[in-house]
Structure formats: structure tokens, C-alpha cells
Amino acid sequence: MPPFVTVAAYAPPGVGMLAVGVVSEVFDARPGLPAFDFALCTDQPGRVVTDLGVPLAVEHGLDRLADADLVLALPWADFRTPPPPPVLRALSAAYARGALVGAHCVGTFALAAAGLLAGRRATTHWRFAGLLAGRHPDVTVEADALYIDEGRVLTGAGAAAGFDLCLHLLRREYGAATANAVARDLVLPPHRDGGQAQYVAAPVPEDCQDERLGEVLAWAREHLDQPLPVAELARRALMSRRSFARRFTAATGTTPHAWLRGLRLSRAEELLETTDLPVEEVARRVGYGSASVLRDQFVRRRGVPPRSYRRSFGRTP
Q1: What is the pLDDT of residue 317?
Q2: pTM value?
Q3: DSSP assignment, residue 303?
Q4: What pairing do the DSSP bridges indicate for beta strands 55-58 and 46-49?
Q5: What are 111-114's contacts with CB under 8 Å, separation 24+?
Q6: CA of 89: how far to CAs of 21, 156, 259, 311, in Å?
Q7: Residue 252: its pLDDT value, please?
Q8: pLDDT, position 213
């Protein structure tokens, strides 16, 4: 099946202004990138007041959900009250006919009310994860995830995690180069490591050690062709290996090994899409000793080997 092209975002009364901005920006037209047919829709076309009291003119009704490839349920202020039955039926019908369906923050409550999360994993803003789990015990709520991909149903964490969810969809359907280009245009990281658990408590203090840690991570990104053992990263950060690992996990929400693996594979995806370098050279440039090692890691992440990925997403002859 071709990647999604038409995108409909359901904006109920009290819709989050930030959420409207997130999806509108991600799926905006950009030269040289896929062109999306994006539209906001609501129960009745007309004036919709956002959670900030700012009115929006929404031209489309629920019929727009009937033919969209991707349907997004945006978060809204009165999320504790389920959407009206016509909305729930429209969301269910979109999924039944094969559309991708997604939501982030408390928009996840709309998908749950429509029965689309039953038997699935899902996430929402960490503050309301307990409420979602209590109301819908048939949903496995993962409060520390930035987003969860369950195939044709995807959910994201709170607020700005809408960017993470949308960029993941672009990466999954259109490849890393497209997702990276959109992220670059929005001045965002193409992929954030770790989960929202790192945002529950106070952020890591910006002391001198954290500044050094940031410098080391930036250095690692520029030297992916090297082995980059944790001991070397810790030495550059002027920390013991144990202290470095603890500080790293507190700052990023993941381990040094997992962070490096994700970085190497993301860079491999981009090289496979945008160059005609042999897979062996791609493996060398991202720090894997052989094409077979890259293949094993790539299959675990993407489910297909590098050459198959290139045939799907490559842009060079």
C-alpha cells in the first residue's frame, strides 16, 4: 500500500491550540517533500474555540474522516467526557476501512472511548495515565513512552510528544530522510531518546558535568565510524564509567549502548536513502564492523534488511 497522503485531524470544542499547531506544521507543504492533503475537521463546520479561548474557523465536518488515509484525534480540554457518538462511530469506521488512526496527549481518550485501544498498548500524558488505565482496563497503558506504534493505531504522550508521534509516522512510511528534513525545518530533533519518565520529575540540573555530557554526545554523533566504548565516552566527560552511565540515563532516559545503537541505525537509514554507497561502506561509516552486523541490527529495528529498506525508500538510481 502507498504511504498516507490525506490527513484529517479531528478538532473538538476546546481543542488544544498546541496540538493544532503540531499537526498543521508537520503536514504543511514543503518543496521537495511529500505533499499532504491536510485538513482540520470538527462535529459541525464553523467556529471552534480552542483551550486558550482563541477561535478557529474549521471548514470540514466529520465526513472528512471518511476518506482520510490518516485520522488524528487531537487533545481537548473536556477529555474526561467522551466525544459524541457520531465522532466515536467516525473514528471506528475510519479504522475499519483501513485508515491509520492516531492520537497524542489526552486525545488518546477519544480512541479509547471508540474501542480502538482494547487489547493494545497505548500511552498518554503521564499525568493522566492512571485515569486512562482506570477507565479502560482492557488497555495496557505505558506511562513512560513518548509514543507507541501498534500498527494502524498509534498513540503519543503529552503536548510536544505530538511531534515525536508525527515524525515517527513520517519515518515509518516515508523514510528517515523525509522525517529528518521535516524535523530540520521545524528545528526539532528527528528522534528523541528515552521516554516521558525523564520529564515527570525535575529535569537534570544544568551543572558543569551536564555541560560536559552534552559536549561528549555531540562529539559521539560526529564520530560514529569509531568504536565509541562507554569507557572512552566517560573519559571524555571526565567521569568514572559508573557515574557516566548513571548521569547519561538520568539525562536521556536510556543507556549509552541503546543511545548509540539508535544513533547508528538512524544514520544508516539516512545513508541508505540518500546515497548509493555499498552496504558494507554504510556499515563502516556508522561504526559496525561488517555488513552482516549492520544487517542483524537493522532487521531487529526495521524488520527488513538494509537492501530491502533501500529499495523501498532509496532516492538514488
Answers
A1: 46
A2: 0.76
A3: S
A4: antiparallel
A5: 111/73, 111/153, 111/155, 112/136, 112/139, 113/82, 113/83, 113/88, 114/83, 114/87, 114/88, 114/89
A6: 26, 22, 41, 38
A7: 78
A8: 86
Closest CA to 256 of 246, 265, 267: 246
Degrees, nearest 5: CA angle 18-105-28:
45
Residue 51 CA to chain centroid, in angstroms? Answer: 23
pLDDT in tens, 127-183: 999 999 999 999 999 998 999 999 999 999 998 899 999 999 999 999 988 999 999
28 and 38 in contact (C-beta within 8 Å)? yes
Whole-number Å distance between alpha carbons of 246 and 236 = 15
164 neighbors 182 (Cβ within 8 angstroms): no
Whole-number Å distance between alpha carbons of 225 and 186: 28
**166 Cβ neighbours under 8 A, 6+ residues apart:** 22, 23, 26, 27
Residue 163 phi, psi dihedral angles, 5° rounding: -65, -45
Question: Three cell numbers at 205?
Answer: 540540573
Task: Say yes or no to pLDDT of 202 above 50.
Answer: no
Q: Check if the beta carbon of residue 285 is closer than 8 Å to that of residue 275.
A: no
Distance between CA 40 and CA 12 in Å, rounded?
10
| Predicted confidence (pLDDT) per residue in 61-100, tens digit | 999 999 999 999 999 999 999 999 999 999 999 999 999 9
User: Residue by residue, what is the 3-state secondary structure of 58-125?
Assistant: ECECHHHHHCCCEEEECCECCCCCCCCHHHHHHHHHHHHCCCEEEEEHHHHHHHHHCCCCCCCEECCC
C-alpha pair distances (Å), 56 with each of 20, 49, 75, 108:
10, 6, 15, 22
Set of cell numbers at residue 3: 504511504
Report d(CA 95, CA 88) in Å as an integer.
Answer: 11
Residue 131 CB coordination number (10 Å): 16
